[in-house]
Amino acid sequence: MVERRLSFLRRHREKQQHADQAPGQGNGPENRHGQPQTPVGQHLVKNWPVLDLGVQPDIARKDWLLRIDGLVENPITLDWDAFLALPQVEDASDFHCVTTWSRLDNQWKGVRFLDIAALVRPTEDARFLLCTGSDADPMSQEVYTANLSLIDALEEDVLLVHTWNGEALPREHGGPVRMITPKLYAWKGTKWINRISFLKDDQLGFWEKRGYSNSADPWRNDRYSS
């Protein structure tokens, strides 16, 4: 039943994409999903710039936990060993930061969010996610969160990654585990991720509360809420 529901949601996403089939804005050859390689307003970099809230949590793998709860039939908490016991995949994708830089062809290893969703079995009411990181704004003490529609999260290239270009994911980039969302601006991929909650209603994340776009489509230059 759950696998049929996830399959339905993914087909719904594909229909949405087909309905909006006008190519997005940008430059260069087509990328892996048929959009211009460099989205509008972006420039390519070879390095991987570091952006954060001013803190970089130091979390040992033996101490890392991921809580998955909300509208699911099987809420769970994964430790490092349980996370590595899930199906591991290697994938290549691009990384687009809202601050106008993009880094192409990153090599990742981790777990598809799709497999995590199948494990916890979202209920019929689940439509959105709220992901939480271990970092917090030093001034307000508000913890970092990012919201996603469940349909967006079920894209096959949405991963929880622990390895980048053959090395352990660096602390400054969200290690030991972060989410990546290659078809969205990168702030939607929570660093130092420790919780994923399935929700009926959308709940704005840290940057969305501060005027950033809720949909975050790089090929629509969708950086800020209108």
Detailed description of the structure:
There is one protein chain. With 226 residues, the chain is of the alpha+beta class. The protein has a single domain, classed as Oxidoreductase, molybdopterin-binding domain (Sulfite Oxidase, Chain A, domain 2, Alpha-Beta Complex). It contains 4 helices and 13 strands. The chain has helices spanning 2-19, 80-84, 113-120, 150-153, and strands at 26-30, 36-39, 43-44, 65-70, 76-79, 89-96, 101-112, 128-136, 143-149, 159-164, 167-168, 178-180, 193-199. Strands 3, 6, 7, 10, 11 and 12 form a 6-stranded mixed beta sheet that branches. Strands 5-4-13-8-9 form a 5-stranded mixed beta sheet.
CATH architecture field: Alpha-Beta Complex
Instruction: Kindly identify the CATH topology.
Output: Sulfite Oxidase, Chain A, domain 2
Helix content: 10-25%
Instruction: Identify low-pLDDT runs.
Output: none
What is the number of helical segments per DSSP (H or I, 4+ residues)? 4
Query: Which range does the strand content fall in?
Result: 25-35%
Q: How many domains in all?
A: 1
Tell me about the biggest sheet? 6 strands, mixed
